[in-house]
Design brief:
127 residues; mainly alpha; disordered N terminus; 4 helices
Length: 127
């Protein structure tokens, strides 16, 4: 006699899971919550890929509570993963700002290089 243990099914998109058929997904609240879990999972996967760089930071108590919330909820496995995810989300949410910063930084670098060249070509008068 075989037991019928239903496992979560994989959706058409890679990494997307469908709740077991016993879960009532016709309720809007549950459907929305499931979608949010999928979105967090995708964002988390993106944020944690290629984490070869180590950055030490000091954070305040409030930020630490948020990191710990993510760990406690099993959204992430560690504070490090929580921080990486939140940083990735913050950068993604501020792309326009980072584009402007990049443009201004390039202008500043060009002006510094021009200043260095000017100083090299100008010899001080030794009268």
């Amino acid at each position: 006699m075989e037991e019928n243990q239903e496992q979560p099914k994989t959706g058409e998109q890679e990494g997307q899971t469908v709740p077991p058929s016993g879960t009532k997904t016709h309720e809007p609240g549950i459907k929305n919550a499931w979608k949010q879990v999928e979105n967090i999972g995708q964002a988390l996967g993106d944020a944690l890929q290629g984490r070869g760089n180590v950055v030490m930071v000091r954070i305040n108590d409030e930020a630490l509570r948020y990191l710990d919330m993510l760990v406690e909820a099993d959204v992430v496995k560690s504070r490090s993963e929580a921080a990486a995810w939140l940083i990735n989300e913050g950068v993604g949410a501020n792309q326009n700002l980072f584009q402007k910063i990049g443009e201004v930084t390039e202008q500043i670098s060009a002006l510094r290089e021009k200043l260095r060249e000017t100083v090299k070509t100008q010899k001080p008068d030794n009268d």
